[in-house]
Each structure stands twice: as C-alpha cells, then as structure tokens.
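Now for my pick.
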Amino acid sequence: MSRLLPRLVAFAALGLLSASTTFLGACSASSSDDGESADDELRKKKDAGADPSLDFQACDQQHVDKNADGDKIIICDKPFATPPFVRFPDDDTKSDVVTLYAAFDVSVGNFVTRDGTERVTMDDKGNAIAFQTHGAGLPSEMRMPCNRNMYTLYRITGKLGQAKQSWSKDTIPGIQVATGAPVVMVPGKIIDGSLVGAWEGTTNARRPDGTFAPDVVPIRVSFSNLVPVSNLKIWETGTSLPDGPVFKLTGTIENFDKSVKASDGTCYPALTSLGDKNPFHGATSGDVDTYRLGGMHFPGDQVLVFTVPKATSDWSVTAMGGLGPFGPSDWLATKGRSTLSLNPHGLPKGNKIEIKVVTGGGGGC
C-alpha cells in the first residue's frame, strides 16, 4: 500500500492543506578474511580514516568529502548489490541516550531505521512535534526541514519513548533528538541510475464505462535511460541544492503491444490484446517515465511522479505515490526494495499501478 494516503490524512489533521500554512524552512594493509586484497579494501574505504565517525564501509565504493553545505560526509559512489544497499555500524538502543542511523521522512517528521521502525520527533514532554515546526526540534546540523533528506542518511542520538499526538489518544514510537548530523550522501545519479532496469507488477483492468475493476492485469516496465531534469530546490525559494540533482528514468511498458516473458518465467499478455480491458486504452505506445519531485503540492510533499502512456483514456496524465525504492529509507533497509504504489494524479476511478524491481525475464513468449 502506498504511504501517500496516511500522509495526506496526517496533513489534513495538522491543517497542512490550508493555503495559509507557513513552513519553517531551515534550508538556507593485510588481506581480508574474505580474500580481498589490501588494495581492494583501501579502494573501498578511500579517505575514511581521517574521521573515526566515518571510518566504516557504508557502500561498495565510497569516498569522504564535503557536501555542498561543508559537512564532511561519506559519499556513496556505488551501493552494495544486495540489501541493505547502504550499511552502517550497529545502532545502540540499550543506552539511556541511544545512537541510531536513520533516514528522515520529512513529509511526516519521522525517522526511519533500518528495520523499518518509524519514530516521530517529540519534545521533552513526549509530545509529537508537528510538521510545521519540527525543524525547531532538530539539531541545526541537519538543516531541516529541507529536501536534503531525499539523498542523505543521518546519525542521531536521543531518548526513545512513546509520543503523544495532538489529534489522537494513541501514542506512537518517538525520539527526543539530542544530536544529529548527516553521515552518508547518495548522489541523485546513483539513486536514480540504480533503478534503471526491469520492474514488474500489476494495474487494474479497465471497464467499458471508463472505470476500473478490482481485477488486475500484469505489467512489465523497463526503464533504460537517465535524463537530467533539475536539482531539488530549497523550500519556498527558486534556489537549487547544488548536490541535489534529479534524473528522469525513461522507458516503456514492455507488454504494451506484445506478450513478454516475466522474471518468474510466466508469460505476460499484450495489454492491447485485452480490448476495452486494456488499462491504457487509447494510447498508441507504451512509453513512460518517472522522476522524484521534492514538492508536488506544497513543501515537503515528496513524491514519485510517473507519466502514463500518452493519450491513455480515463487516466490523468501522471500517476504519483511515495518515493518507495527511490527514498532514502529503502537504502538502509534490511528487507530490500519496496513496492512502488502509484495512484492517478486526479480523481481516482479504481485504478493504480504497483510495480517492483526485478531481475531476469524479458523477450517474447
């Protein structure tokens, strides 16, 4: 399920969809045991030794340098091929003041740890800090709220607890943050480029009246090219983040007009063979693209935009959903890539797209 709906519910509860909302932007030498040579180890850990806090192997290939804000940070040149794609030392959850490595989901003010646990920022009284003001509850070194979270992973310390929400009697996991700083940056070209390839999943079958049935049909999407788009922006300004480039993935729905072999060996039928049930009825080709966006409707509305095949009837021009596998929480997650869930950018008619990265498959069947 997409995380977009819960986010919108939270936004509405906090009054974030009001036109009067104000966002407080802060953007302004011996062989190893596995047989690798010493040279291999030095290549992978290039420059890491100067700062003990950065002396660990986060990525398959990495180097230490300053980011655009002047922070010394590990820059991921090549992620690991298997989950977690970015790797960290163990968290310390036993001490009174814990140390965690985490992604930050700025849209709802949550930290996400490698096991998928989400912790909302909270004050010293255990109250969850609202989205509009959570930047004030975080260390200045994190420069939050900001789109920097879309390509940065953090080390934080603080006290764990159960946070009280202003709109609910329920409590949720929280953390009162004491210190925090960026520790690993995954450049945009690495994020977007690593997701070039095959994706498989489903979308809803169309009904003759232009609505969509609960029944789904399989689709296989292949992204083959990266196209530079622009850099992510500092909130509420036209100023670009120098180290925040975004690349559009372009490709096609492979089984748009021909049957295609799936990664599990089954055969996906051509969508055009379905007649009125074709989810992309009216389109003349299966060309699609997708890209990250730092603020769809308002600052912090960070989404993945998917352009459906041109001239498709009964769809909006684009679909959108949470960042999914493009989001930083997927990079440190032990579970692997999440499913990308996309809904029409407009009034829903029962249609959505759910796809996930796969290996293998392709070709006719």
Summary: The two ends are 30 Å apart (CA to CA). The CA atoms of residues 263 and 361 lie 4 Å apart. The chain has two domains: 4-186, 189-357. Residues 1-25, 29-36, 41-49 have pLDDT under 50 and may be disordered.
